[in-house]
Amino acid sequence: MPHPNDFQTRRVGGREVIYSRDRHGQIRVMLNTCRHRGAEVCREPRGNRKVFTCFYHGWAYDDTGALISVPGDDAYSAGFRKADHGLCRPRCESYRGFTFVTYGPDAPELQTYLADARYVFDLVADQSLAGMQIVSGTHYYSMNANWKLLMENSCDGYHAFSVHQTYFEMMLSMGVTPGLAAEQGNGRAVSLGNGHAVIEGPELGMPIASEKILSAISQRRADFVARLGESHTKRMLNTSRNLIVFPNMAVIDLNFGIQVRTMFPTASDRTEITGWQLIPADVPADVLSYRLDNAMSFWGPAGLATPDDVEGLEQCQRGFSAVKEVQWSDVSRGMGAAEPTVVDELQMRAFWRQWNTALTGQPARPEGPRYDTSYLGVEQRSAASGVR
């Protein structure tokens, strides 16, 4: 939403919202619910608008959510005040361009809530001096499975070679050797606090590209080395990472593309998923095309990853019909390991412990080492420790 009065409508946490940039450039989130009878005041998915007018009775709200017009307002009593009937504004905060909404009055500040996940957001957001941007276009899809299964899947390195065998065979046929930690015995799984977790490993391997594109990618990397040093650049540009943010967000950075994903339940066995592609704003057009082609080949509706993942999760959901006989899922892989790897399941245990905390109020027990920030300089680590 680059321009004043740009807006999008979304469903977030079971509520319809208007996500907008007001006339002053401030990001706002407002419930898309008229304060008269509850009808939606905006029915378009996106656009640019200074005023939102309810279709049902014509109540109108400005770009800040303030009620500015009520047809026949002289029929209301003297106690009726427009100022008391603006659109509800849930609390929202942003970090590195990502906007989060909470409906909980006691939720902590966003920076506190993200805990060590902030380091991972930094590694994604710092990949361009010009900023990162969402590519126009959204991938909407659904699955007949519980939403928490996709949270598991989004940070599951163990399933890659069995479920995505076709993709890796394609890579090998093009002369590209996958650099997965599952194959090389490298990588790490880390609990980041508050149910967030990440798996990191060697880059997946770049699908075939022209010399021009490879040269542009190499030059971009050299520019980052000159500015940040080799260690920081390698961690940022040559490391694959799957981040889950409790309760229902994932950021998957596989070097050739970055997917931002949210998942919302509509029933215990039905989930709606939204996926976006995140790119550096300053990449050349041919590199952008290359990244999008690879994203579609892997994550797209007919890609070699997403449909396979959905099939696997729907099979799990069908198998859950035997819950009386098979009462538990086993997520114990790597438990007790000094340094859990990407094919272990510490990251899932971090999610489920936070889920248990949300249900019972019992604090979660931390597991595994803290996130490694040795790639940061001394001054950067010192600055980061002041807010984390």
UniProtKB/TrEMBL annotation:
GO molecular function: 2 iron, 2 sulfur cluster binding; dioxygenase activity; iron ion binding; monooxygenase activity; oxidoreductase activity, acting on paired donors, with incorporation or reduction of molecular oxygen
Entry keyword Iron-sulfur: yes
Keywords per UniProt: 2Fe-2S, Dioxygenase, Iron, Iron-sulfur, Metal-binding, NAD, Oxidoreductase
Domain Rieske: 1-101
Taxonomy, superkingdom: Bacteria
Location of region: Disordered: 361-388
InterPro entries: ARHD_Rieske_2Fe_2S, Rieske_2Fe-2S, Rieske_2Fe-2S_sf, Ring_hydroxy_dOase_asu_C_dom, Rng_hydr_dOase-A
Family matches, as PANTHER family: 3-PHENYLPROPIONATE_CINNAMIC ACID DIOXYGENASE SUBUNIT ALPHA, CHOLINE MONOOXYGENASE, CHLOROPLASTIC
Record-stated family: Belongs to the bacterial ring-hydroxylating dioxygenase alpha subunit family.
Name of the protein described by the UniProt record: Aromatic-ring-hydroxylating dioxygenase subunit alpha
